[in-house]
Amino acid sequence: MKPQDYITSGLLELYVYGVLDKHENEQISSLINKYPEIRVEVEDIELILMELSTEISPAASPQLKSSVLKAIGSTEVDEAPRTSRSLSVFGVIGWAASLLLLGGILWLFNLNSNLETEVQVSNANLDTLEEQLNQKERVIANYESTLEVVRDKDVTAYSLPGNEPVAPDAYAKAFLDKKNNKVYLDLAGLPKPPKGMVYQVWSLKLDPLTPTSIAVLDQFNSDQDKIFEISNLPETEAFGVTLEPEGGSKSPTLEQLYVLGTV
Amino acid sequence: MQPDFLIERLQNKDEKAFAKLYDLYSENILGVIMTIVKDQNIAEEVMQDVFVKVWNKAQTYNKSKGRFFTWLLNIARNSAIDRVRSKAFKNTSKNHDIETFAFFLQDDTDLDKASESIGIKKFVKKLKPMCIKLIQLLYFQGFSQKETSESLDIPLGTVKSRNRACLNTLRTSLED
């Protein structure tokens, strides 16, 4: 017989009932170990039989289990009521633990997003600080180069005093590098030009008086150190700075001459 | 599908394992005993005897020779039948008119269980009277095929196949 033949024969049911003779019983026992499908069938039969007799069973008296346990001399007490209570305690602890865990997860999530925000803010601050640092470095580099100019043995410093009728308090300095034909004009002593007006720098020859425009300082207000480098100088005997309308003029407006000095 | 681990511990006289096996099997064993003794107080007394025997004889159970359930069933049936045959039982029993397990599955016997047991009760109702008699004798009373064949006056060769067909009707109640 094949396993399937045993399954349909009805012998397995009688095996679970325990009503087969010894020989048949041994035969089925060994088949169960050999064929999983037979074992599964036997278990299914057992299940329906247990179901059937459980349905028939009346509700046992509550003290029956204790009495059975006592009869075998067990020191175990009937755990049924305590088990159900301890289960509910475990249940409560379980729920509490779940809630705590959930709370913890939410707290961590919140903490994490706060930290992320803080990191973003810190990064932004860092960027700002880096930018400020770069700016300071640029300023320092600028000062250093200015200092180098001032110290340069080939550079001569000249004062450009204020023009008494127009700007008595104004002053300027010229650092003339004859070797490289350059001038660094320090105009920090000039007032802020009015709106629509710019300073214009002139190179002057004195005899005859011949002005040549060498720079229109339309970036005067935004310049940090007010030191202006002007290259490719013509032959110069004096520097003058006048206030001119925006864009500059072809010839200096002498009524608006702020500083003038010979070199 | 059977709690081999608990059974091994029971065989080593583990009281906790015994208590757990009691929880797993006591209800359906009480049902089996009820179909034979037909009285709850007596059934509970018999069940106590059964589980004391389980405790004392646990070593005699051999996994390779049969199901633990079958082993329990044999002890329960034999204890119940012994009780029914005793003189004391014959004097006190009032339920001689109950013939088969089907009595205990009538709608009005146990209101508490009515809702859970609709499935299997419904299928028990579908069983032919011959099926109820077959299951009663083979399962609950442990009759051999030959005894069953003689008692019901059916050919010996048809007992196991008829019984299988009857149980299959019940099994559809689990599958549904």
Helix and strand arrangement:
The complex is a heterodimer of chains A (263) and B (176).
Chain A: H1 3-9, H2 11-17, H3 22-34, H4 36-56, H5 64-71, H6 80-151, E1 155-161, E2 171-177, E3 182-186, E4 197-206, E5 209-217, E6 227-230, E7 238-245, E8 257-262
Antiparallel strand pairs in A: 1-2, 2-3, 3-6, 4-5, 4-7, 7-8
Helix pairs in contact in A: 2-4, 3-4
Chain B: H1 4-11, H2 15-37, H3 40-57, H4 68-85, H5 87-92, H6 118-126, H7 129-140, H8 145-152, H9 159-175
Helix pairs in contact in B: 1-2, 2-3, 2-4, 3-4, 6-9, 7-9
Count of discrete alpha- or pi-helical segments spanning 4 or more residues of chain A: 6
Rough shape of chain B? globular
Integer-rounded radius of gyration of chain B: 17 Å
Q: Classify the helix fraction of chain A into a percent range.
A: 40-55%
- How many domains of chain A? The number is 3
Q: Mean pLDDT of chain A, nearest integer?
A: 87
Q: Give the CATH level 1 class of the largest domain in chain B.
A: Mainly Alpha
Structural class of chain A, please?
Answer: alpha+beta
Q: How would a textbook summarize the main sheet of chain A?
A: 4 strands, antiparallel
Number of domains of chain B: 2
**What distance lies between the first and last C-alpha atoms of chain B, to the nearest angstrom?**
21 Å
Please give the CATH architecture of the largest domain in chain A. Sandwich
Structural category of chain B is mainly alpha
CATH architecture of the largest domain in chain B: Orthogonal Bundle
E-strand count of chain B: 0
For the biggest β-sheet of chain A, the strand order reads 1-2-3-6
Q: Using the coordinates above, name the CATH class of the largest domain in chain A.
A: Mainly Beta
Q: Approximately what portion of the residues of chain A adopt beta-strand conformation?
A: 15-25%
User: Helical segment tally of chain B?
Assistant: 9
| Greatest contact between two chains | A-B, 49 and 65 residues
